[in-house]
Amino acid sequence: MEEAGAVVATAGESELNLSRLSVSPETLESELEARGEERRGAREALLRLLLPHNRLVSLPRALGSGFPHLQLLDVSGNALTALGPELLALRGLRTLLAKNNRLGGPGSLPKGLAQSPLCRSLHVLNLSGNCFQEVPASLLDLRALHTLSLGGNQLQNIPAEIENLRSLECLYLGGNFIKEIPPELGNLPSLNYLVLCDNKIQSVPPQLSQLHSLRSLSLHNNLLTYLPREILNLIHLEELSLRGNPLVVRFVRDLTYDPPTLLELAARTIKIRNISYTPYDLPGNLLRYLSLASNCPNPKCGGVYFDCCVRQIKFVDFCGKYRLPLMHYLCSPECSSPCSSASHSSTSQSESDSEDEASVAAHRMQKVLLG
């Protein structure tokens, strides 16, 4: 146990642990300056500095001058309202932990962050438990980030520019007020872990199926009533957390159907009857339109659709235990798929044609958390 008022250190030559000290910020500042002076003549550079739970209201001035080789800085659990310019002097910093502070207002992050060496060195950034209402624009230029945590803030949305963080492997945005997932989130090729739990999300864009490296997707405690069929394309997904969503206890059925346009009827006829044509036989707009055809997923139906289709909920079994409602599109209300028949009960939907999908997809998801 640490004695009140005592400054303790070292968990090894390269680490300085000054957490939970019962001293004033001024005393801590003096201690850091003294330790920095000692380190200037030391053979081994200090790589890790731990300053959590010290009632800090600003970053110590001694950071930049006394610890130039720092790789990890932990200032969590303080009363910081801003990370000052001292941060920019830590040119080789790889991990910054600043959770549970009071960050989020104007000037919370230092000016010039995106142009500083931190743009190339910082790999892990944890700003969870603060007061951010939007993702700071300067964070979206930290191209070397592997992990970004902004959970437990007051975020209202995810900016489309999130796609700039191409090296991101873990994104934690749980415990906010996010209502929509931007399609651009699907453009992160290295993303392994995506946490969006405890928000107000109502739907999942099909573009998330482009996250081919994704292993864990946490969506529990949202407002989801269905998942897009494309979720089955996440071939490396091992964990899908869905508990606390409406889809777990009920499902929706939308039987509304707008008649197709004459353009779509013409294109459907050409596709269904396999009519041969050359670029000189048809108008340009019809030629372009024909390239957008989607086949009806019902294996018993040879139909196609373009803009007009029937949106349905189809239940697909996973691991022989859970039945997930996935968004399902049909070419017409008369399609013979069991999931389009209003006479079938909800418990018998897709009893037949979901079995093939389940046999293919069950091995992809080793863990589905619904309860």
UniProtKB/TrEMBL annotation:
<feature type="compositionally biased region" description="Low complexity">
    <location>
        <begin position="342"/>
        <end position="351"/>
    </location>
</feature>
<dbReference type="InterPro" id="IPR050715">
    <property type="entry name" value="LRR-SigEffector_domain"/>
</dbReference>
<dbReference type="InterPro" id="IPR032675">
    <property type="entry name" value="LRR_dom_sf"/>
</dbReference>
<dbReference type="InterPro" id="IPR001611">
    <property type="entry name" value="Leu-rich_rpt"/>
</dbReference>
<feature type="region of interest" description="Disordered">
    <location>
        <begin position="342"/>
        <end position="361"/>
    </location>
</feature>
<dbReference type="Pfam" id="PF13855">
    <property type="entry name" value="LRR_8"/>
</dbReference>
<keyword id="KW-0677">Repeat</keyword>
<keyword id="KW-0433">Leucine-rich repeat</keyword>
<dbReference type="InterPro" id="IPR003591">
    <property type="entry name" value="Leu-rich_rpt_typical-subtyp"/>
</dbReference>
<protein>
    <submittedName>
        <fullName>Leucine-rich repeat-containing protein 58 isoform X1</fullName>
    </submittedName>
</protein>
